[in-house]
Amino acid sequence: MTVSRPKKKRVVVSLVTFNSDIGVLRNTLLSLVREIQTVESLGSIGFDRVFIVENFSNLYYREKLHGLVSNFRRNYEAITFTLITLDENIGFGQAHNLAIFQSQSDYHLILNPDLLIQCGSLNNALSNFEKNSNIGLIAPMIIDERGSPARSHYNDLSIFDIFLRSLAPQSIQNLFSRRINKINSVPVDETINSGKKAVFSGCAMLCRSSALVQIGGFSKDYFLYFEDYDLSLRILQHHKAIVDSNFKVIHYGGETTKKGLRHWIYFLRSLVTFYFFSARKKTERLYSKNDL
Predict the structure, then answer these.
(1) CATH number, position 130
(2) Least packed by Cβ within 10 Å: which of 30, 78, 85, 113?
(3) Which range of residues forms the domain containing residue 146?
């Protein structure tokens, strides 16, 4: 009698690049490869492919990226690296959507090209998914490049809170310390129930693929910034989430206020969309009217 083995769960990874630092990206991919090898050595979960979506960077960068991906394909033949090169910059979320909707996976790992995954973290997060079928999103503990915990996940964030944490001097922030502590108090290792207003950083998100497909992936309302917060809230409309202390990444990015005028314009445009004009916000207003 032949005993059928349980079907392996499958994972797809996507990263989006736009003139990203090649050296940092190389280290990101090395940490990812190490995690993939660890997970696959345990046997119950496999990886379909790693998508790298190149979002219309300059030609010099593209040549460097093609060389980097070729090296990884040559050195790690067991892992499929798929490079998608775009003829226009379609934005962070839409670039990830290309990978999300080409995949037939159980889990989808969304990654920035400027982070390191700590040893064993990905296996820890996937194990958490395997034990909790009602969770749609697992967010990591994020550490900044100085080795300090980064505040990247928030509770019930208002426009005032955005400007308070982004622009206010420390003296003003001290006056609102209780409020800041409240928005920073996203529970760790506790299930965040559906309907909560928690938002998570998109630098690293492990999602159940069915949850991403159910909500249509990242919203087309955003080019850059707030697409991760919007995705968080839409997943939490249907599923639960968790911040997993055993899933850790070191993030070398962020700091919108230091990135120049163009990024400020993107940031402010997305902020207005997020709070007033997104499809999610229009749906929320419609439901609130129907409840009257």
Answers:
(1) 3.90.550.10
(2) 78
(3) 9-153+187-260
